[in-house]
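Hi W., the 5-O-phosphono-beta-D-ribofuranosylamine complex you wanted:
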Amino acid sequence: TPAVVLMSGRGSNLDAIVRAAIPGLDIRAVISNRPDAGGLALARDHGLHAEVVDASGFATREAFDAALDRAVDAFSPRLVVLAGFMRILAADFVRKHAGRMLNIHPSLLPSFTGLATHRRAIEAGVRLHGATVHFVTPELDAGPIVIQAAVPVLPDDDESTLAARVLAQEHRIYPQAVRWFVAGRLSLQDGRVCLNGAT
Ligand code: GRF
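Structure:
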């Protein structure tokens, strides 16, 4: 399965997916919107092709979106993996990759869509928090859920201790979701997640 990974930061989810050595997964490119993303060096250390579509290089959002679309299309991916990609994608890009684009969000969706999820979870006093892998749809952080992991919020947690506990689970469930997709066991049928034939 030819895949492209989009990321913006340190790339720990990319690293976890690469280290999972998923049979059949062919990461053709890692693309970042930020030239300073630590994940670029990490990708190259893994021998992966890495490139930058630098958002600051484009006068308009549309010009960036078009450049990103071209960069991804060059690799004809059957799977697009968003691994900490901190840009909102154009709706037509999302539609083009419908059913073939995954994202990981650091909360138990539908709770805490958006940013600063760990701080908000602590502030809300929830006792369970976690991470969600979902198919990407035009609505932000709202696509059909593939897999989730829950972690306890402990009384002495702060944002960083909770984030670390969640991240460890991200590194478990994201490779699992990719493994299912590459094995042909995971699909989106009429907006519903189908795993191993069950919807
Ligand atoms: C993770 O917390 C993920 O849930 C969110 O952004 C972060 C990505 O981290 N989408 P990394 O770049 O994969 O380490």
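The mean pLDDT is 97.

W.
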